Amino acid sequence: MGFSVEVLAKIAIELQRDIGHQDRFARLIATLRQALGCDASALLRYEAHQFIPLAIDGLAQDVLGRRFALAGHPRLEAIARAGDVVRFPADSDLPDPYDGLIPGQESLKVHACVGLPLFAGQNLIGALTLDGMSADRFDNFSDEELRLIAALVAGALNNALLIAQLESQNVLPGENNGYGQAPGQEMIGLSESMVQLKKEIAIVAASDLNVLIGGETGTGKELVAKAIHEGSARAASPLVYLNCAALPESVAESELFGHVKGAFTGAISHRSGKFEMADNGTLFLDEIGELSLALQAKLLRVLQYGDIQRVGDDRSLRVNVRVLAATNRDLREEVLAGRFRADLFHRLSVFPLSVPPLRERGDDVVLLAGYFCEQCRVRFGLAQVVLSPGARAHLAGYGWPGNVRELEHAIHRAVVLARATTTGDDVVLEAKHFTLHDQPAPVTSVALPPDNTNLREATGRFQREMITRALAQSEGNWAASARRLETDVAHLHRLAQRLGLKA
After folding, report:
1. Where is the Sigma-54 factor interaction domain positioned along the sequence (predicted)?
2. Environment class of residue 260 by beta-carbon count within 10 Å: exposed (0-12), middle (13-18) or buried (19+)?
3. What digits encode the pLDDT tens for the residues 240-267?
């Protein structure tokens, strides 16, 4: 019993209907699952030696956030190399990438599994995977029928990817990256706010405008900057990074503009600054709100006239640099308070972007959790890292004040804890492996030091504890720690150095 003409017609219609719509692939997968009697199916896009899920049915939601590198998944590698329908033996020894990821099925030791590679001409563009819990689920379908399904799906996938490229003004496949970002630099998320952000990135990347990227600590502002650079005409030139919050005032100007030999004590040779390093490329200034007013004035001059002066040099150098700046402060308030120059703010914020906090991104939390689970699986050499339903609910219900960075650290911690109590290479993360607290516990009392401690020692000890705690709560970010402690970041750096907390 194969496909009827009616079923094939329905599949073809589903494939072409609203091909530019967000849920087109989800509808297709649902249709195929019904027609083939699958218990689970997935449509995957191929890029840079990995498969990226576009739509799933019958699989855990976090699969959509996972990235399946061929090197770590033998079945997917076999599908990518086959060039034709792949039917895996029901008792195949090759580990299944979805083991533990089909709700209600703890193991996929014996099951039917079919893989259909998808091609555009000679180029592999994706794969369709079909799983059935009974070993003979797909025996009634001939290879010829499955090839027909693969051809229909491949055509629809190729058209959809071309539409996506045109919408984002990207190049066609085979040139540059074509579609998406490099592994490890991808912005994971299907929420409305993230879809909108990606559209805005695609628009501004093609221009040469300076961009101000706003958002809370840990939301992924650096990834936004990388995406803008990679989508711009400057992509072949360097993207240079500078964290303004980590710059002591004494060396900040030299870091930005360079210096000549003898400009100051310790300047034993000429040194290029970040602007020179980024010539013809992009300079990403993180935490720009931490720059002093004097440096803001010099930065404004570069943006206005395109020339810089090394410290100690009378000559000017011409540079061609696009500046992307990021901040977790409200720079409008900083301008009103006199801590940030209004003219620099307006120069930078021609096209402002706002990265949404994780608590406003809905189901993206679970997708990101799946992404980090797969990263941990590879890093620790595990067979599987799976989230239990309780763990998914636990993560989805938390407020994530530290945003994506906090989620990443929470997953890594949970994997380490789970491994300590697990035998074998299959790790299941439970809610108990996560210790999440929206707010740090209040300090109700301060323990007094011993009687023989003088005031200076006691003060130093207390300051060390306060700074250490603020750093822990701010994921090691000095600027955020300074705001928690309501002090100037430069003063905090000096104090931490005096107390022996930094070299």
Report:
1. 187-416
2. middle
3. 999 988 777 767 778 888 766 655 555 5
